[in-house]
Amino acid sequence: MTTSLYSPGTRVYLDSNDGWVPGEVISCTRGSGDSLVLVLKDENGQERTITGSGSALPLLRNPPLLESADDLATLSHLNEPSVLFAVQSRYAQRKIYTYSGIVLLAVNPFEPVPLYTPDIVKSYIGRNKGELEPHLFAIAEDAYAAMLLDGRGQTVIVSGESGAGKTESAKLVMRFIASPKVQTTTALQTTDADKNSFVDGASLVEQQIQATNPILEAFGNAKTTRNDNSSRFGKYIQLLFDTNRQIVGARVRTYLLERSRLSYQATTERNYHIFYQLCAGLPSQDLQELGLDSDYNQFHYLNQGGPSTSEMSDRDKFHAMQDALRIIGIDAQRQMQIFQILSALLHLGNINITQTRTDAGIDDDDPAMARAMEFLGVDASEFKKWTIKKQITTRSEKIVSPITAPQAVQVRDSISRFIYTCLFEWLVTAINVSLTGKYGDAAARAETYIGVLDIYGFEHFDKNSFEQFCINYANERLQHEFNTYVFKLAQEDYVKEKISWTFIDFDDNQPTIDLMESKVPPGILAILDEESRLPLGSDASFLQKLNAQLDKPANKAVYKMPKFANAAFTIAHYALDVTYQVEGFLEKNRDTVPEEHLTLLTSSENAFVREVLDTALHRTDTESAEPPSPASPVSKIPDPGRTSLAATTGRGTSVKKPTLGSIFKSSLGTLMDMLRMTNVHYIRCLKPNEHKRAWEFEPLQVLAQLRASGVIETIRISTAGYPSRWKFEDFSRRYLPLINWREGPQLVKREQWKRICVLCLQKGKIDKSLFQFGETKIFLRTGVLATLEGLRSTKLNAILSLQTHMRRVLAIRKLRHFQRSVVGMQSHWRGAAVRKTFRQTRDKVRKEAEAAKASKAAKLAADKEKSRVMGRKTPTSPGDKDAVENGSPGKKGRKLFSFGSKDRSSLALPDQRGSSLDPPLIGRRPSKLEAAAKRLSRRSWYEDTSSRAKSPIRAKSPNVLSTASTGGSQQLPIYDRFMKKPAWNSSTNLLH
Ligand SMILES: Nc1ncnc2c1ncn2[C@@H]1O[C@H](COP(=O)(O)OP(=O)(O)OP(=O)(O)O)[C@@H](O)[C@H]1O
Fold it and tell me: Which parts of the sequence are annotated with region: Actin-binding (predicted)?
């Protein structure tokens, strides 16, 4: 053992009563031999010293970055506390989903969470698993994409203990898959427009699939201590797709409805919801007709358990259930017939069975019996006879003998349970008729499917009975499938593909399964069946036989006789050892209805009762109660199977009833056969606390579930093997965008698939240890595909960006051209406007000048005239003198050109014909202003529009002009009158 692994500062997990606490190494020194002496401090600051080696030393903690990794398979230290802390810290951040290799862990939030909004649904469409946060929708999308890829059937297995959230998760998965948008949108073709229409109303099929929920929940769910809406049966819903991958229908299969609940409930639990809903929701007239009352406490089958959840919610749910029945085609009349059977069961439970001295007795006019028989269409006296008596058939004769009251009660209850189970089976058949068409047409049209299995998780209580035995048997088989799927098949493939691979050990649970189901030598179920058929069979003799036949060295690892419990046996399950109490095993396994009662019921006067029994007893291989249409083609889709409640020797005649254990075994077998044909996706639901409190996390409880669901083992298997394998061609086609665009198509043309694979992996800089080439396939370790997918989407996004950029450049070019045209046009028009103003000013000034000249001339003439009249010479000013001598303007004329003048508006312009008003420039340089004014006046004079480029009116900046017409002070935006400011439209990638 090296000290560097535990250098000071190393983060570790320390054992505590509540599991583990985080801690840190203070110091590490060598002890004797291989051992280390560690001084540690836990998170509460308490110090402790540990001396030892190997497993005695604390487990290592992951770096903070990985501590809440969204895939547990990426944890660098993969141990129980790391896994637990990762799930816990994510849950604390309100992240309820975490990947664990190929499994999605879902921790129940116990309150509505904003994780299933239409926006979130949209964001998962067409996205690869791992691209976004872990989510149920990612698994559903993965299954859908896998189905699109090769048309293979898919199954999403949702498991977990009661109340962990299986049913809710399964519903969400189905809602996602059945959504019309998911079906029309492939991973490669998603557009924003597509995504936006996702939330458009549900399709008809989706409505029908959703309608199954209130029905199955009303008839198959009940309030238990662990869950107010606990499903008391397992179900497999198969969504069927046609060649265009459009959903065409669905099929529902159910497993092992809990029958005992009908006649008995614990004080804190309830019977099936439907009974309370019936009492709360039926109008009083109907209640009266059925002999019911809104106070359900008068019925023995309803008053043993705890209070109703809420009368209001029962009433609402009843109406929702009635609507759902209508959607699947069960009209009001048929509904009333169903309610009659249900009330018959409640009345059956109220039949008063008394104990006479030795025998059981029932009053001939017992009102409950009369009502029940009326609704069931059975003769009351015959019913009474066979409830308090039994008939034993020997070789030579039939002997009828009385039974005791408790035995008669058992007979009565077994009949109720049997009828209820038949009704449930009939309903499932009716649902299937609605979802697949009368003759299973949808199933016949279907090409492929996605199934969602919502099944009870591993159970272990203080007292475990026959139900736990069956549930754990189912989980053993599912775990075996999981191991086979992830591991065994993987290894077989490695061998077939000749890749170098070292076989790693894994806990194969086949011996446990053999112990439970084997026929030869007989396993537990076979021994139970054998004992159940013996008239004198008992729980004690069953246990004796178990111990005699199974407590052998060969079974040492899987079968144990508990030391302290004498009426029990222990099985070493893959999750943990569970001790089962044998009491009640035989009775529950038999769950028999006396032959006489069966005959009475199958020949009932009530046609609907006959139909219900007939459907449940005889329909083993068809979808509907109707005879199959001769024209209906055979479905390609494997059927998860429904085993009849009875094996018959003929319709409605002698019925040999199989035991519950054998029914369950056979339906599980069919289910497993079907799972083997599909790609399987796993969702493990976890229950964070027993009190159903939101966001409360009890580490030890979750740890037990993590162990039971085999999460650690899963991670080990996933990370050890090559979970992804692709045919060279499939891989090449998918990742072709990664390689050089000149080389790629050439290689495709020459079908050099392997070469393309090599180039793709080189592009992704994938380490050699992370992949291997087989004969026909490439094998990849976990994470490689995610890297390549990331690169691929980066490349595809880059192409998209390039296109966007080019479109932008072209749009800008067009815009600039447009801008120039606008500016040119504006220059032209402004130039023209200024020239016009200029001409007007000039004309005005000229007129004024001429007027002044004329007035001066007139004045001079007047002065001359005056002088002449007066006969003397008129004195002139020096300026006037100059003017006279030089022929140039006088003082006043010069003043007209003075830019220093305050009176700018009186700016005078020179006469183009060499007016005598020209300033006297000879002998001095003109001032700059004078020169500019002269230039200005000359250029403007020509009125040549082609010279607008040299116009004195110029733009100061592309979008601002100063104009002479506005005194040069007002600045006008160029585009204001001609165009809007350019704006970027992201959807068209154009400037507008
Ligand atoms: N994703 C979720 N968001 C919010 N609440 C949830 C979610 N999943 C489960 N819940 C809550 O947990 C309760 C129990 O869930 P659900 O009925 O699905 O458990 P389950 O595992 O199917 O139990 P059972 O095996 O007894 O049928 C639900 O009624 C609901 O209140």
Answer: 668-690
